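Task 17 of the worksheet. Students: predict the tertiary structure of the chain below and write it out as structure tokens. Keep your answer in the requested format; marks are given for formatting as well as content.
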Amino acid sequence: MPDVLQQDLREFEERLSRLVALRHAIGVADSTEGLVLALCPAKVQRSKRSPYCPTSTLPSIASIHFVGALPVLVDCYPDHLMDPKSAETAVTSNGTAIVPVQPNGPVCAMDGVREIADRRSLMVIEGGPRALGAKFKRNCAGSST
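Model answer:
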């Protein structure tokens, strides 16, 4: 089998993992594949509610739906980033993950999202391709999960 772009992809993944200060990074074709790839092994449960920000794009909704979870719209701040309190009220007892997506560069208040997720035993699957390199406190977008 030919080694088409494999070396380029490996180099990209190594550089990206260093940029976001994580051990691993996986290159995918688009953010939909990235979210599905993160949601599937995380065992996001079928028919469970997963809050996400409505300022995100349709692929975010599709990713959540594809794995069988129920996408639930939550409120956003004027900067279009997820309001963690709204996410908490949307979860109810039928929740499995919070899916904050960084739609326009800045990173949402991940400490609030993380605190709610920890207290409610929820996973956080963060989508951050449009905020690559942006940070919330000292964590790069996509590295708070």
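Marker's comment: The CA atoms of residues 52 and 99 lie 5 Å apart. Helices lie at 6-19, 31-39, 58-66, 84-91, 110-120.
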